[in-house]
Amino acid sequence: xxxxxxxxxxxxxxxxxxxxxxxxxxxxxxxxxxxxxxxxxxxxxxxxxxxxxxxxxxxxxxxxxxxxxxxxxxxxxxxxxxxxxxxxxxxxxxxxxxxxxxxxxxxxxxxxxxxxxxxxxxxxxxxxxxxxxxxxxxxxxxxxxxxxxxxxxxxxxxxxxxxxxxxxxxxxxxxxxxxxxxxxxxxxxxxxxxxxxxxxxxxxxxxxxxxxxxxxxxxxxxxxxxxxxxxxxxxxxxxxxxxxxxxxxxxxxxxxxxxxxxxxxxxxxxxxxxxxxxxxxxxxxxxxxxxxxxxxxxxxxxxxxxxxxxxxxxxxxxxxxxxxxxxxxxxxxxxxxxxxxxxxxxxxxxxxxxxxxxxxxxxxxxxxxxxxxxxxxxxxxxxxx
Length: 385
Prior knowledge:
Layout: H1 2-27, E1 40-42, E2 44-46, E3 50-64, E4 67-71, E5 76-79, E6 90-91, E7 96-100, H2 103-130, H3 135-143, H4 160-168, H5 171-186, E8 189-191, E9 196-201, E10 208-209, E11 214-219, E12 224-231, E13 243-247, E14 254-266, E15 272-279, E16 289-306, E17 310-311, E18 315-320, E19 323-328, E20 330-334, E21 338-342, E22 349-351, E23 364-366, H6 370-384
Parallel strand pairs: 1-23
Antiparallel strand pairs: 2-22, 3-12, 3-16, 4-11, 5-7, 5-10, 6-9, 7-8, 9-11, 12-15, 13-14, 13-16, 14-15, 16-21, 17-18, 18-19, 20-21
């Protein structure tokens, strides 16, 4: 009997719980969600087609227009000179850059000079007897011969017979051997070919220099060239003498250069053509990285837009009344940040700034006064709150 009563009470509790739960569910009121329609404010620009200059952007490193690599053609010990052979040292044209010990070679030159003098002295008696008309010139030459100076040119032969006579006695052979030695002797002293600065020094005083060894680099810091690669399609518009605007990476300093040369060959791998821009300024240094803006030509009946506004590189968002729509455009040139397009009717209002999540048919509000601008800037803050 007790078990039956407990069973009945359990069933009643379950039924009561079901009714209570159902009551609580039915009494709960769901809040109605209110969808807030947000109309984005956009910035537009009215299209006015006209002539737009096509500017080719290129970059590269400056190189001195006049630069030489110093090599030794003789062997010897590097001797000290008036100035230290170090990077940054300036020299004037003709000034001694470095000096190589030439004592041994100088003795060989003096020996060859003595040999030439002996040969000329030995032919003087025969020259007096057989060719008296040529004797005075050779007599004067041997009297004025100086052992410590460069050898002067031999007297001109007065006749073919005199020339054959001198050739047979080995006069010309001895003379040209001597001039060859004098020429090599002069290479022990290397002088500056122009006013410039030493940018690389690979030897020190006391170093044994060998034939063919590189000694350093010497440049003229007055005139530089910027080598840039330009797409082959713009090759017809590169003209020698045309002005080019140059700037550094920070776009703080600007310079004006001119197109000095244009290569006549197109690179097969990159399909570009090389142009050399000449520029001069005391602030410039070799190796500086510069950006060049070359004016190629003007695009007629065109309009310039931000490159990020293009959709699939061929369409642009425009505003008709308050609705966004896509208009087809014909791009004629792309730069790093901008694009020049054609095909947009005058008076069309196109987006000036990109709109996140934009789509054709989107309802927008055109910013027309300062209040709209301020409201559009405060919209993100309101959304976050």
